[in-house]
Design a protein that fits this description.
- By secondary structure, the chain is mainly beta.
- The chain has one domain (2-157): Porin.
- It has one helix and eight strands, in the order H-E-E-E-E-E-E-E-E.
- It has one helix at 2-12; strands at residues 25-36, 39-53, 56-66, 72-82, 90-103, 110-124, 127-140, 143-157.
- The protein has an eight-stranded antiparallel β-barrel with strand order 1-2-3-4-5-6-7-8.
- It is elongated.
- Residues 4-16 have low confidence and may be disordered.
Length: 158
């Protein structure tokens, strides 16, 4: 594990600024788990982001919650800013998002608002790896819920 992280750090110095430049599009894939409504879910999803200016992206994402009841899916609109730092191979990021969660009856659909912070590391000319924290605030079924969790993402840029 230490060797893999060292290789990521060394190679990321070779490719500065590429994937976070204006006009680039990033695709990220994710897989995780969640426990909701007394069911364990495997969550799979994809994000598409477009950099409107250097380091600032807007996007859309879709997540499907598999293996539990009720059926759940989410559509999210994120805005993320990668903070450029001189002479450093990684980019801290900060972001906000709005999420619409669709859920089978008898439950009601609900909204989630939230933010994220973390670090992105460019691993090649067209790829990156991110590690961070997500904090959510939802209004599910007239109850306000707070939830935080780590996020790990890998993505490609074109």
């Amino acid at each position: 594990m230490k060797k893999a992280l060292l290789i990521l750090l060394v190679t990321s110095n070779l490719f500065a600024d590429g994937v976070f430049s204006a006009g680039n599009k990033n695709i990220e894939f994710k897989i995780s788990t969640d426990n909701s409504f007394n069911s364990n879910y495997t969550v799979v999803g994809a994000d598409v982001n477009y950099f409107i200016i250097d380091n600032l992206s807007i996007g859309a994402s879709y997540d499907a919650f598999l293996g539990g009841t009720p059926d759940i899916s989410q559509v999210t609109v994120p805005v993320t800013y990668h903070i450029p730092l001189e002479g450093i191979s990684y980019r801290p990021y900060i972001g906000a998002f709005y999420n619409q969660t669709f859920i089978d009856k008898p439950y009601n659909d609900y909204n989630i608002y939230g933010g994220r912070v973390g670090v992105s590391l460019q691993t090649s000319l067209n790829s990156f790896f991110s590690l961070g924290w997500v904090q959510e605030l939802s209004n599910s079924n007239d109850n306000i819920k707070k939830k935080g969790y780590p996020e790990v993402k890998a993505g490609f840029s074109f």
